[in-house]
Design brief:
Structural class: mainly alpha
Largest sheet: none
Mean pLDDT: 88
Number of strands: 0
Order of helices and strands: HHHHHHHHH
Low-confidence stretches: 1-15
């Protein structure tokens, strides 16, 4: 009697498209994201978008430091003074440091350090989702390429956030997604803080990088786009809920 053997399902071999330069790939991320991945199978270029996003984050942080970040933090400290958790002398000392050149450097350097860590963790999630959930063979470096290059699609959202924060002189209550539908409040509570994260995360500017990541993950892994969309979408929702929970946890009671 003829016997059959189960064969593990893996994605089709990814199509090897012509390699792109970093400038061509950057343009393709915004103009033709489905065709922005050629050459990454064999050539690492993750360093370029990572460097771009680190520079963009540092410039935005430095630009908003005195205009929006310090006023927002000072408002939070004043709330703690009213609650008896901090003295006016302590606030004056910390505010003096934050407004100093050293304070600007510390805040900016934190942004530069945190971004690569976030990218490494997101790549790990993507690698897990494609490699273990879908059972498709994919290298971690390819997952890292996807999250780094797709992060460039966040730049329009960052620019809009910077403009709004500059005009309002605070980052508090700045929304670039559906969080704008929430009522404005000088001291938003835990629920409103969590809802703001969730609603902004479901806005078009936030979802566009997710779409780009889906296209990239499918291109580099060879897995069907529909399957990749389900996995990446599920991971994104999980991360979004986790971020909202953290926001609720660290938001003071209204």
């Amino acid at each position: 009697m003829e016997t059959t053997h189960a064969v593990p399902v893996t994605g089709a071999s990814p199509t090897h498209a012509p390699s792109l330069s970093v400038w061509e790939r950057t343009a393709a991320i915004f103009a033709r994201p489905a065709h922005a991945w050629g050459g990454l199978e064999t050539r690492a270029q993750w360093w370029f978008p990572l460097l771009v996003m680190m520079v963009v984050g540092a410039v935005i942080t430095a630009a908003l430091h005195d205009r929006a970040i310090v006023p927002m933090v000072v408002d939070q400290w004043e709330t703690q003074i009213d609650a008896g958790k901090m003295t006016a002398a302590q606030m004056e000392q910390m505010e003096s440091f934050m407004r100093s050149p050293a304070g600007v450097v510390v805040t900016t350097v934190q942004q530069v350090i945190v971004w690569p860590i976030i990218m490494l963790l997101l790549a790990l999630l993507l690698w897990f989702g494609i490699g273990f959930v879908l059972g498709t063979r994919v290298r971690y470096r390819h997952a890292f390429e996807v999250v780094c290059w797709s992060s460039l699609a966040l730049i329009p959202s960052q620019i809009l956030t910077t403009v709004l924060a500059w005009s309002r002189e605070t980052l508090q209550g700045v929304h670039v997604g559906f969080g704008i539908l929430l009522p404005e409040s000088d001291s938003p509570g835990k629920l409103q803080g969590a809802l703001g994260i969730l609603l902004d995360g479901l806005g078009p500017l936030s979802l566009w990088p997710v779409v780009v990541a889906i296209l990239g993950a499918a291109a580099l892994s060879g897995a069907p786009r529909k399957s990749v969309a389900w996995v990446v979408g599920g991971l994104y929702i999980a991360v979004l809920v986790f971020a909202a929970a953290l926001a609720a946890m660290f938001t003071p009671m209204a």
